[in-house]
Amino acid sequence: MLLGHSFTDDNQNFAIKFMQEGVSMKKKIIIAASIVLLLGVISYFYFSLKGNPISEAKARKECLEYYENAYHEKFTVYSSEYNLKLPPPHYHFEMGPVNNKNIRFGTGGYCQGMSDYYGGILASAMLTEDVTALLKPKYNHLHFSVSSEETPWAWSSGTAPDYFETNPSIRLKKNCFYTHITLPDAEMNESELTEIATNMAKDIENQLSYEPPNLQLFIVVNSSKPDEEPLFLKDFSLFDTTARSVAATSKICEDVTSLLKPEYGYLNFAIDGQEHISDSDHLGEMDLLMRLKKNHYDLEITWINGGLNKAEMEEIAAGMFEIIESQLPYETTDLRIKILVLKSTNQGEIPIFEKETFLFKSKSVD
User: Fold this and answer.
1) Chain segment 322-363, per-residue pLDDT in tens
2) 323 and 337 in contact (C-beta within 8 Å)?
3) Which domains, ranges and CATH numbers included, belong to the chain?
4) C-alpha dihedral (193, 194, 195, 197), degrees to nearest 10
5) What CA–CA distance (Å, rounded) separates 232 from 200?
6) What b/e sequence results for 133-157 when a residue is b if at least 16 CB atoms lie within 10 Å of its CB, and e otherwise?
7) pLDDT at 366
8) Do residues 249 and 231 lie in contact, with contact meaning Cβ atoms separated by under 8 Å?
9) Closest of 251, 256, 339 to residue 291, by C-alpha
10) Three-class SS of residue 6?
């Protein structure tokens, strides 16, 4: 009996100990799982806010490869920032060429669809050097300084910017730039400063060997006292492509009107147009006739219908196209002409006929 009793007690003790160890093991598993879950949640929020090393390394590698392949020189990343407000992959890098520590620019994967900043920096540096060299013989005694900056995403009438061009000489002819000329606080009155600024602007526009479209020139005399407004500021718009574009467009509208009026003047038609800026390589052309021959134009001929049926309108449209193509004294590149016939109603004018064609297609003048 004593042995039996002792055996039963041992079994009970073993069972209790086993259950206790089982409960302890479950607690350990629950605690471990909770820790893992907590770490997972923390990591998720951390990486959501800060990014993760793998995606950062991938984005960094892609940026470096882009610039090194484009410019055939080594670049380095100075710092990186993860920002969910940026398009994927959400990283912004401060980087620059290895051989020039003074050049740093911000970029990221999100920039590669918008602009190549380094190309803008190189073009701006070239413009600064060329303007300085141009002005120095005449104005060196004024101890002026020059700085330039590309204006990204600045579209103006008559321009077709290219923010991925790697050649500074070509980029300067396509994109818009700001140039600042700063003069020291000298003892000159406003009239004298205005004359100097005007002459500087004329010299740049007449002597610079290329034409940055719509170059915004600012000539400033800063005060010697900190935090004070400039003592003098004069701004100019040089190489104005907007005016050239408008002049060329007005010319072709007038010429087409003169051609059509003898036969179709009774329609009281109107012609509107614009220089078509995409794929046009001659936006700096100053000669009006050469500009018309080199560039693309869109014309719209409209009139209010006076009872013509569709067949009659088709015949008129074909006749207009033939006259323009055969009698216009110059050929533009891909002249797009749209004929739009309107009908007057109580609710206003509504289109009832539309015809479009391209004349002189794919012809260009070098």
Assistant:
1) 999 999 999 988 899 999 999 998 888 999 999 999 998 755
2) no
3) 118-239 (3.30.300), 243-359 (3.30.300)
4) 80
5) 15
6) ebbeeebeebebebbbbbbeebebb
7) 45
8) no
9) 251
10) helix
Positive or negative torsion for Cα 326, 331, 336, 338:
negative
Are the C-beta atoms of 127 and 212 separated by less than 8 Å?
yes
Q: Helix 53-71 vs helix 117-139: angle between axes, to the nearest 10 degrees?
A: 50
Query: Tokens 């190549």 label which residue?
Result: 116
> Any residues with CB less than 8 A from the CB of 364 and at least 6 apart, and which?
294, 333
**Full DSSP string of 286-349:** -SHHHHHHHSEEEEEEEEE-SS--HHHHHHHHHHHHHHHHHH-SS--SSEEEEEEEEEEETTEE
Q: Which stretch of DSSP H or E encloses residue 232?
A: strand 232-238
* Angle at CA of residue 95, ends 93 and 98, nearest 5°: 155
pLDDT digits (tens, 9 = 90+) for 177-236: 999 999 987 778 889 999 999 999 999 999 999 989 889 999 999 877 777 788 888 999
As a residue count, the chain comes to: 366
DSSP code of 218?
Answer: E
Strands 105-107 and 91-97: antiparallel
Would you call 219 helix, strand, or coil by DSSP?
strand
Which of 166, 145, 164, 279 has its CA nearest to residue 222? Answer: 145
pTM of the model as a whole: 0.62
Q: Is the distance from CB of 50 to CB of 61 less than 8 angstroms?
A: no
Rg (C-alpha) for the chain, rounded Å, is 36
Structure tokens belonging to residue 209? 């060997």
What string of H, E and C letters represents the secondary structure of 16-85? HHHHHHHHHHHHHHHHHHHHHHHHHHHHHHHHHHHCCHHHHHHHHHHHHHHHHHHHCCCEEEEEEEECCC
How many of the other CB atoms lie within 10 Å of CB of 258?
11
> What are phi and psi for residue 149, nearest 5 degrees?
-150, 135
Which two three-digit tokens encode residue 7?
């055996």
